[in-house]
Structures are given as structure tokens and as C-alpha cells.
């Protein structure tokens, strides 16, 4: 059986992703959960949907919070996630979770209510392509790594120190 290709849309991580995520792309792989942190406009998420047909995909995005001041837990800079044609479908299916992925309370809520269900497949892959801030990346590792099934993967993108993120 030929494996699907993981195609890039903005960067060129496809060769690494093809190597690491390829085993999850076959039609005969057991169902599993995949979490993406940083939906942005959903192009990456849409690629994962096509690439991994047996995955129960979840994504987290801060920009789809209610508009308003950050100090009130809202998002003042616009909802770029809603530009995705499947935005409403992902929200309605409880696959796109709007919130701050560096907030332990939000993470715990999504884990316990949406992902750690009795009928849920195991969490096998987490990709953090969110804020690119060191403190947020550390939070992802500390929260999600212990919840990934043995043999699974955690990918944290863009860990190089950059002025804009640090």
C-alpha cells in the first residue's frame, strides 16, 4: 500500500514530517489522537486531515477566542482561524478548541472533557506550532508529553531563539 505524502504549505518540514508521521498515514494504522497546537488559518490542520485518515485530530487556537482585551482573557487581534472554510465544522465537531494553549486550566479542560474519553483512541502525536515562546513550549512539553502513549511523538516547531518570540 502506498503511503500518502505530507505536503508543505508554508515551510519545508515535509521531509521530516514524512519520515516521522508517515507510519501514521496508512489506512491500516490503528485509530489514534493527534493534537496540533496553533491552528492559525487551518492549512496545516487540513493537511493533517488528509494525510492521516485514521486520526482523531484536535487543534488549539487562541485567535478564535471572543474578541476583546487580553487582560479579560479575550483576543484583540482578529480571528484568522475563521478564514478556514471548515472552521465552523471543526468547532461544531469539538476538534478546534479556542483558548490559550499555555493556560494549564484550559489544557486540563480539553484533555479531560474532549480527549480523555472512555471511547477515545490513545494520544499518539502532539505538534506544537503555536506561540513560539519558550515558556509556552515548555508548558506544552510538561503538560502533553506525559499524556502521549509510549512510542508516540511530540514535535515542537521553531525552537530557535528569535527576537520576535523571546
Task: Tell me what the structure shows.
With 166 residues, the chain is of the alpha/beta class. The protein is 28% helix and 16% strand. Strands 3-2-1-4-5 form a five-stranded parallel beta sheet, with helices on both faces. The radius of gyration is 15 Å and the shape is globular. The mean pLDDT is 89.
Beta content: 15-25%
Give the topology string: H per helix, E per strand: HEHEHEHEHE
Q: Please tally the β strands and state the result.
A: 5
- State the helicity in percent bands: 25-40%
Shape: globular
The value of Rg in angstroms is: 15 Å
Largest sheet: 5 strands, parallel
Structural class: alpha/beta
Neighbour order of strands in the largest sheet: 3-2-1-4-5
Low-confidence stretches: none
How far do the termini sit from each other? 44 Å
| Mean pLDDT across all amino acids | 89
**Count of helices?**
5
Topology of helices and strands:
Elements: H1 14-21, E1 32-37, H2 43-51, E2 55-61, H3 87-92, E3 96-98, H4 104-115, E4 123-128, H5 134-144, E5 153-156
Parallel strand pairs: 1-2, 1-4, 2-3, 4-5
Short synopsis of the structure:
The chain has 5 helices and 5 strands. It has 166 residues and is α/β, with parallel strands linked by helices. The protein has a 5-stranded parallel β-sheet with strand order 3-2-1-4-5, with helices on both faces.
Which key phrases capture this entry?
single chain, 166 residues, alpha/beta, 5 helices, 5 strands, globular
Amino acid at each position: 500500500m502506498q503511503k500518502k505524502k505530507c505536503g508543505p504549505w508554508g515551510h519545508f518540514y515535509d521531509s521530516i514530517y514524512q519520515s516521522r508521521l508517515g507510519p501514521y498515514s496508512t489506512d491500516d494504522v490503528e485509530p489514534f489522537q493527534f493534537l496540533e497546537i496553533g491552528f492559525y488559518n487551518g492549512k496545516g490542520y487540513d493537511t493533517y486531515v488528509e494525510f492521516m485518515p485514521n486520526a482523531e485530530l484536535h487543534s488549539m487556537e487562541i485567535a478564535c477566542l471572543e474578541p476583546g482585551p487580553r487582560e479579560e482573557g479575550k483576543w484583540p487581534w482578529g480571528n484568522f482561524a475563521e478564514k478556514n472554510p471548515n472552521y465552523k465544522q471543526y468547532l461544531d465537531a469539538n476538534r478546534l478548541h479556542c483558548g490559550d494553549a499555555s493556560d494549564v486550566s484550559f489544557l486540563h479542560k480539553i484533555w479531560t472533557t474532549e480527549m480523555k474519553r472512555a471511547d477515545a483512541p490513545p494520544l499518539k502525536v502532539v505538534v506544537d506550532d503555536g506561540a513560539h515562546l519558550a515558556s509556552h513550549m515548555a508548558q506544552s512539553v510538561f503538560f502533553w508529553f506525559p499524556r502521549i502513549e509510549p512510542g508516540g511523538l511530540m514535535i515542537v516547531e521553531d525552537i530557535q531563539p528569535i527576537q520576535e518570540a523571546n
